[in-house]
Structures are given as C-alpha cells and as structure tokens.
Automatic annotation (TrEMBL), chain A:
Keyword Cell inner membrane: no
Protein name: Manganese/zinc/iron transport system permease protein
Transmembrane annotation, as ranges: 6-28, 37-54, 60-78, 90-107, 144-163, 175-198, 204-224, 231-250, 256-282
Gene3D superfamilies: ABC transporter involved in vitamin B12 uptake, BtuC
Family: Belongs to the ABC-3 integral membrane protein family.
Automatic annotation (TrEMBL), chain B:
Lineage: Bacteria, Pseudomonadati, Bacteroidota, Saprospiria, Saprospirales
Chain segments annotated as transmembrane: 12-34, 40-60, 67-85, 97-116, 143-161, 186-214, 226-247, 259-281
UniProt record similarity statement: Belongs to the ABC-3 integral membrane protein family.
Designated name of the protein: Manganese/zinc/iron transport system permease protein
Main location: membrane
Length: 386, 370
C-alpha cells in the first residue's frame, strides 16, 4: 500500500464517520431527506464561494456553502409554515431550484470555474491526496484531510458536550422544551453541523453520495439496536468499513471510489435488512407467521372449551368447522399437543387442565382488552412457540 | 435566435414539443404524487433509475434509447417497491427509506457508469447525459414515445378515474368498498415511474423530481377540484417546458433542464403569492380586513355600552370619552358613520337606532342574513 492509498482511505474513513454522526440524529428525527436537500442546495454556495476564494478547501467557502445549507432548511420551514403544501413537497420544491441555479452558474462560467459537473455529483476522492497543505515549505499532508479532520473534531466535541440534550430532544422534544433545552437551538445546531459536514464531504464524495454516507450507516445501525450510543458506534463502524472496502472495490474495478463506497453500504444495508434479528424482513415474516399460527391455536382452544359434545371435538369435524386446510390444522394440533394443552384420544380432542387454565386466562385477557398481555401469557404456558 | 426560429427551426420545434409533452405528463401524474404525500418519491425513483440504464447498457452493449429506458423503468420500479417494503417491514420511516434507495441506487449507478467509461468500447460515451439531461438530443421518435405514453396514461386515468379519486382522498374507505387498493396503488406508482423515466433524457436524474412536483404544487393553489388541478398542472408543466426551452435556446451555455426547473419554480412562487383562495397576498389582505372589521365591531360595542346607560340611545357623547378605549381610530369612526351606525357632529358622536340594534345583536351566533 502506498502512502497515497493510505491517505485516500484515511480521508474516506474520516468523511464516513463525520457523516454518520449527524446522520444518526437525522434518521432518528425523521429528517433524513433534509440531508438530500442540503447536499443539493449548497451547490450555488460552493460556486459563489469559489468565485471569491478560488480554492475548494478554503474555510470561507465552506462557511458560505454551509450557510446556503442552513438557508435551505429555513426556506423549507418557511414554506411549510404557510401551510400551502406539505412538508415533503416543500423540500422537493426548494432544493432542485437552488441546485439548478448552481448548475447554471457553473455552466455560464465554465471558463472561470474549475468545477466539473461530474465532480459535483461524484467528488474526486482519488485526487484528494494531491492537493497538499504546505506550511512554510514543509508538507503537512492533504488539505482535505485537514478540512474533514477539523470538521470531525468539532462534531465530536459538540456531540460529547450536548449528548444528553440531543438525546432528550430527539426522543421527547416536548419534555426537552419543558426542561428548558431550547429545541430550536438544538435543531438549528444540528442543521448547521449537518451542513458543514456535507460541504466538507462534498469535495470528497459529491452531492448525492454524501447522502448515502449520512443515511445508510445510521439506517443500518437502527435496524440492529435500540441504544443510541450503540447506534452511533455501529453507524461509525459501518461507515469506516464501507470506506475501506469501497476503496478496494473501486481499485479492483477501476471505478469511482464514492460510487463503490455507497455500493458497499447498499450491500451492507441489504444484508441487515434481510437478516436483522427483530427488525429484518425475514424475522418480520417469521413473526407474522408465528402470530398467525398462535391466533389459530387460541381460536381452536376457545372452540374446544365451548363444546362439550364429542361430535364437535372430533378431529375431522374441527377441520370442517373452523374451515382450516389440512396442513394448517395439523400444525395447530401439533403445537397444542407439544405444549400439553390438549390430549387426543380416539381422534377426539380434549383440553388438558393446563389447556383449560390457559384458555380461561386468555379469554379474560381478551375480554378486558389487554391484548399485549397475551404475549406474557404465552411465555408462561408455551414450551414451544409456533 | 429569433422568435420566428421557433416555428421554422425543425430541431427546436421537436425539442419544444418534447419538453411541453413531458411537462404535461409530469404535471398530470405528479398531481397524484403530491396529493398522496409522496412528493419525494419522484426524487428517489429518478435516482434509482440510473443503475438500470447502466446495467441495460452493460448487458446489451448497445446504446438504444428504448433498451436503456426499459432498464431505467425496471430499476425505478424495483426502487419504488423496495421503498414500500422497507417502510412496511422495518421501523425505518419513509424519509429514511427514500433517502436510502435514492443514494444507494444512485451510488451503484455511478459505480457502473465510471466502470463503463473505462471499458474499451467506443460505443459507451454519452450515458452521463442522463445525469442532467440533454434536451438537445431529443428526436422525433422520442417525442412520439412521450406522446404515446401520455395518451396511455390519460386513458388509464379516465378509466380508473373514480377509483383513483377515491383512493386519493380516503384510502381506507376505498378498501372497505371492495376496490383493490393494492392494484390501484401499483398502477399509479408504475405510471409515475414511467413519467420519470421519460423525463430522464430531457431533465436528467437529479432535477426530475422538480418536474413532477412543481406543476402539481402550483396547480394545487388554484383549485380544490381534482380534475381542475390535474388539468392546470398539465398546463403549468407544458408552459414550463416551452418557456424553459425557449429561454435556454436564446443563450449560450444554458442547459435546458435547470432552466425548465427554474421556470417551474417561478410558476410555483407566483401561485403561492397570487392565488385568490390560498395565496399569501390575498390571505394577508383578508387577514387585515378581518382585523379592521373586528376593531370596528369592538368600537361599536363600547359605544353601545355607553349608550345603553342613557334613556335616549341617540344622546350625543363627546368623542373624548372613547379615549380610554384603545381600539378606535378616526378612520374607524368614519367608517361607522358611513354605515349610518353612528352620527358624528363636531367632536360629538351619537348612536343611531340602526347602530344600537346592530350592536345589541353583534354577538348573536345566528348566521348573517347578508
């Protein structure tokens, strides 16, 4: 691995972490699409800043562009407040307009601005190590490493200082406000940090892919944990993993680094989306199936309890009566027997004392409308779940 | 260029017609997206279409418009339905799902595009026109394709008009009536995807969502009726297309897509401010008028309380005694006098019987006969 390669991976990893932190809060606050809006609408700010400074890594340009990001948020909120359109429409109206202005500005001044429209969307991570910070003739490393390093340090400091406040206002804005933490300041603080991060990362990964770095690690982590700290750590971890793996994938295919970073993030999300315990699709389907079977079981037990006559409790009759197909009724019978809720003598089904007790308690739970308590009841009675 | 070029220049005519039709179909279908609160769906789908274009090229190796658009259609649909599945199966909210699909699909598309660019294949250049669109590449067959798609979607819209209308305003009720809401949902989503895919060549992936949203959001301000809204949105979309093309053709270095989007944004702005029912301007005027009205009524009530202390209700009083009541101005008094609710003589006022009557019944909740 050459020094350049290490530097590229280092920059990519720092960008990923810097994006993952505000991303976690944006996802939790249901404001993920705001990052999309910001990442597009900072373009005119960047172009104007470039006119002034002629340097993509200048702090002035970053502040100017970040200001455009915050203005976008204010504009979106102003349009929402008029009540003329819904929130998401307001976002969808503001950022394409600002982005268009940026694109036109670049196109009209193509001779003066060394900003490539492809670079706007993709970033040029591969070239980042060649723009170096020289202080008094000595080489201090790539400029973008310093830019993103500074942003990350500020973000981390703010996160540590205001962790409690952020956590509270994210999960219970009302309580946070009553306790005297201004939701407004926290909101705009988060927006400012997001804007600055997006601008800092923009240079490296481009407008659209910075959205991937903000949303995807946080969303993936959210499927795996309920703990804010763990979620932050996990999303930073996913970001770094995507940065390193993405770099090598890009190396292999000789393709865009940012593109392959988000492809890795996409694969990561896909795997977690399918297999995450509790939140994944498979586990959600499994849970649905189990609940369906257990509801069937309950219906079946209630039926047994209601009928004393042998004819009604005959196995074959049950199939007709509750109108189940053969496979399903066999599964329900099996489950009931495995849990010692019924006995079958000469094809006639009987509730065991345990089954009787379970049915009674279940019935009283259902009639008192405490549907959640049925889970606890199942825990107590079932040896095997559906 | 001159205005007359517009009618004589064949290429320009084709492009203008194309963008006009595109604007119309986007306005039409965008109305549904806006009313269903799926405004950003267009954004996500247009980005999600990118890998489809790249994959279609990778697999077939040819750069035929139809094949690429088919690829875009498939990948846009996959994106749209994956979003629904994420929202349905996990705890992630729709904004996160939209952002995920948007950025991840787009990232994958960019990976493929940059990969294709490095391939030793002379045919590959020009795929990146789908990023920002190049209206200049529109040819007659593209316009026919758009016109055909517009016709089909109009037909489907008319065919399922009642069902779609019901679905928009009360999805649960639609389901209880026995309509297949899933089918309707898929139908309308598919047509939105088709409109987006058609626009990719002209406006590009990044700005396509505005094409879908802006005309509909503008039209929404002028009417509360679905059919009128869809009609207006189509007109606005077409106008944005025509004017955007004209403006960008009149200057150098002005790409069509962004200009169309900006024209659409201006239409939205005008609608926000000037629409008579909902517009900000008339809302403010109404607000001020109401406030003045309230001040007048307050003054009248205050006078009523003074006058009712006297046997003769028309007994004159000095205007001065109103001084400890803050709400009145000379204008208010004049207005009251104009309506013959009070008489003003010098620095004295007196209530007329009509004014007394009106003040006594001012807070009656029965509706005004006027």
């Amino acid at each position: 691995m050459s020094g350049t390669q290490i530097e590229i991976q280092l920059i990519a990893a720092l960008v990923a972490v810097a994006c993952a932190i505000p991303g976690t809060f944006l996802v939790l606050r249901k404001m993920a699409m705001i990052s999309d809006a910001i990442s597009h609408s900072i373009l005119p700010g960047i172009v104007l800043g470039f006119f002034l400074t002629q340097d993509l890594n200048s702090p002035l340009l970053i502040l100017l562009a970040a200001l455009t990001g915050v203005i976008t948020v204010i504009l979106v909120e102003a349009i929402q407040r008029t009540g003329l359109v819904k929130e998401d429409t307001a976002i969808g109206l503001v950022f394409p307009a600002l982005f268009s202005i940026g694109v036109i500005l670049i196109a009209r001044n193509a001779n003066d601005v060394h900003l490539d429209i492809d670079a706007v969307l993709l970033g040029e991570l591969a070239f980042a190590p060649f723009d170096r910070l020289l202080v008094g003739g000595s080489d201090w490393g790539p400029k973008s490493l310093w830019v993103i390093g500074t942003i990350l340090t500020v973000t981390l400091t703010l996160l540590l200082l205001f962790f409690k406040e952020l956590k509270l206002s994210t999960f219970d804005a009302g309580l946070a406000a009553t306790l005297g933490f201004s939701p407004l300041i926290l909101h705009y603080g988060l927006m400012t940090v997001s804007s600055v991060t997006v601008v800092g990362a923009f240079d490296a990964v481009g407008a659209v892919l910075v959205v991937a770095l903000i949303i995807a690690p946080a969303a993936t982590a959210y499927l795996l944990t309920d703990d804010l700290r763990k979620m932050l750590l996990l999303s930073c971890g996913f970001g770094v993993f995507a940065a390193i793996a993405g770099y090598w994938l890009a190396n292999l295919l000789d393709a865009s680094i940012a593109g392959s970073m988000s492809t890795v993030l996409g694969l990561l999300f896909f795997v977690v989306y399918l297999f995450a315990p509790g939140q994944g699709v498979l586990s959600s389907l499994f849970r649905e199936r189990r609940q369906r079977l257990e509801v069937s079981l309950l219906v079946f037990l209630l039926h047994l309890q209601n009928h004393q006559e042998k004819r009604e409790r005959h196995v074959n009759h049950l199939r007709e009566h509750i109108n189940w197909q053969e496979v399903r009724s066999r599964r329900v019978l099996d489950l009931a027997r495995k849990n010692n809720l019924i006995t079958i003598v000469d094809d006639v089904v009987d509730l065991t004392p345990k089954g009787q007790q379970f049915t009674d308690e279940a019935l009283s739970y259902i009639t008192t409308n405490k549907e959640t308590a049925i889970e606890e009841l199942k825990e107590r009675f079932f040896l095997f779940r559906g | 260029m001159e205005l007359s070029d517009f009618f004589t220049n064949y290429t320009l005519r084709t492009i203008t017609l194309g963008t006009a039709i595109l604007g119309a179909i986007c306005g039409m279908l965008g109305s549904f997206a806006v009313l269903r609160k799926q405004s950003l769906l267009g954004d996500a789908i247009s980005h999600a279409a990118l890998p489809g274009i790249a994959l279609a090229f990778l697999f077939t190796g040819v750069k035929k418009q139809e094949i690429l658009l088919l690829g875009a259609l498939v990948s846009g649909l996959v994106g749209a339905f994956w979003i629904r599945s994420i929202v349905k199966h996990t705890r992630l909210k729709s904004d996160t799902a939209l952002g995920l699909i948007l950025s991840l699909f787009f990232g994958f598309g960019m990976l493929l595009l940059t990969y294709i660019q490095k391939l030793p294949n002379a045919n590959q250049a020009g795929l990146d026109k789908y990023l920002f669109g190049q209206a200049a590449t529109l040819v007659e067959s593209d316009v026919w394709l758009m016109a055909g798609a517009t016709g089909v979607s109009l037909l489907v819209l008319l065919l399922f008009w009642k069902e779609l209308k019901l679905l928009l305003f009360d999805a649960d009720y639609t389901q209880t009536l026995g309509f297949n809401t899933r089918f309707l949902d898929i139908l309308i989503t598919s047509f939105i995807v088709i409109a987006i895919v058609l626009g990719l060549q002209t406006v590009g992936v990044v700005l396509m969502s505005a094409m879908l949203l802006a005309p509909a959001a503008a039209a929404r301000q002028w009417t509360n009726k679905l059919s009128t809204m869809i009609f207006l949105a189509s007109v606005f979309g077409a106008l944005a297309g025509v004017f955007g093309t004209a403006i960008s053709a009149s200057y150098d270095n002005l790409s069509t897509g962004p200009v169309i989007v900006l024209v659409a944004a201006v239409i939205v702005l005008v609608s926000f401010v000037f629409s008579p029912e909902r517009g900000l301007l008339f809302r403010e005027i109404r607000f001020r008028r109401n406030r003045k009205d309230l001040n007048r009524k307050k003054t009248l009530t205050f006078m009523y309380h003074i006058a009712s202390d006297h046997a003769d209700i028309s007994h004159p009083h000095a205007i001065r005694i109103l001084n400890n009541f803050q709400g009145y101005t000379r204008k208010t008094l004049n207005q009251l006098a104009e309506r013959e609710l009070i008489r003003i003589e010098g620095d004295q006022w007196a209530m007329t019987p009509k004014g007394y009557e009106e003040a006594a019944t001012l807070y009656d909740q029965t509706p005004d006969p006027v």
